[in-house]
Design goal:
It comes from Xanthobacter agilis. By secondary structure, the chain is of the alpha+beta class. It has 7 helices and 21 strands. A hairpin with a 2-residue loop joins β17 and β18.
Length: 326
């Protein structure tokens, strides 16, 4: 403190006088905080929300008539949660977006410290992404990884628009603050490798994942799950395929993890906290931290869940509500 602050403290005649000195010197009396910093259980202002693929695809098609990837670099629609002035984060640690690329377009090459993964919704032959020089086809139903600080770009040499869902841990990086981003000079990266997609660690093909699910034991609720082994490439998130039979019901208790679920096939409904909504192929819904949720399938369905559970587990912060059954 400055000598003036010491003089002001000595001249204080009551606590209110002291509080004014504290505030001027960027100090807060722990017994006189404006708001609590500790609470008995997790709380979040993030809301359960859902987004519809049909609406997003229509909107991106419409936007595509007026702007190209040259104009915007990425033609994407961010699914944001209306928390304060937020217009980016889907849940506290993850952002999800729909993206579209038209025939003949490419999305310029860049890299960043955030990790990314992509669930391909609709793409014909000739659509691909390049990750550190590795050419990967973008096939409907596949999941592609883009680990942090890997150069990546997207191309459409086919005859139809291509659509996918991006999930990134950008909000987590924002909060920890190690964000770096760099554009590749010239915009195009050279293709140096064209591997067999089924042997590439950045590709999880739909058919292979269906085979893995068939080998997975059915749970008591009838669902089968297969969690991708991606920790060596993206250690911050868990990616899990969930297979549900027609008439299936999956109920999950509150946990400290935040989740985003995308629908690969089928239709049904979800109850997340107090919010209920219908879902079908390509739709997305989010489960913020400390929200119980239930998913019901009206037909055989395949869902993809992305959660921040690995980050919380590594830090010792993943907690399941002990008052609710597993």
């Amino acid at each position: 403190m400055t000598s003036r602050a010491i003089a002001d403290i000595r001249g204080a005649e009551n606590l209110d006088d002291l509080y004014r000195v504290f505030n001027e010197n960027h100090l807060t009396a722990g017994w006189h905080k404006k708001r609590s910093s500790l609470w008995p259980e997790p709380r979040t202002s993030f809301q359960p929300l859902n987004w519809r693929y049909a609406e997003a695809a229509e909107a991106m098609d419409r936007a595509g008539a007026w702007m190209s990837t040259e104009d915007a670099e990425r033609r994407n629609l961010l699914m944001f949660n209306p928390v304060d002035d937020n217009d980016y984060d889907t849940v506290r640690t993850l952002v999800c977006a729909y993206q579209m690329i038209k025939p003949g377009e490419y999305a310029r090459t860049h890299r960043h410290t955030a990790n990314a993964m992509r669930l391909i919704l609709d793409a014909e032959d000739g659509v691909f992404t390049v990750v550190n020089g590795i050419k990967l086809p973008m096939r409907a139903g596949d999941v592609l990884l883009t680990p942090n600080w890997h150069w990546h770009s997207h191309y459409n040499e086919g005859a139809a628009n291509a659509y996918w869902i991006d999930v990134l841990d950008v909000p987590l990086v924002h909060r920890l603050e190690p964000m770096f981003c760099e554009n590749l000079p010239g915009g195009h990266q050279e293709v140096t490798s064209v591997p067999d997609p089924e042997a590439c660690p950045f590709v999880f093909g739909l058919e292979r994942m269906r085979a893995e699910l068939e080998q997975a034991p059915a749970r008591a609720d009838g669902t089968r799950r297969h969690r991708l082994d991606i920790d060596a490439h993206i250690p911050t998130v868990a990616v899990t395929y969930i297979d549900m039979p027609a008439g299936g019901r999956m109920a999950e208790p509150r946990t400290t993890a935040s989740r985003i679920l995308a629908v690969l096939s089928g239709a049904g409904a979800a109850q997340v906290g107090e919010r209920r909504f219908e879902w079908t192929r390509g739709d997305v819904f989010c489960v913020p931290s400390w929200h119980a949720f239930e998913v019901q399938s009206a037909s055989p369905a395949l869902l993809l869940e992305v959660s921040d559970e690995p980050t919380l587990s590594k830090l010792g912060f993943f907690i399941r509500d002990p008052a609710q059954p597993k």
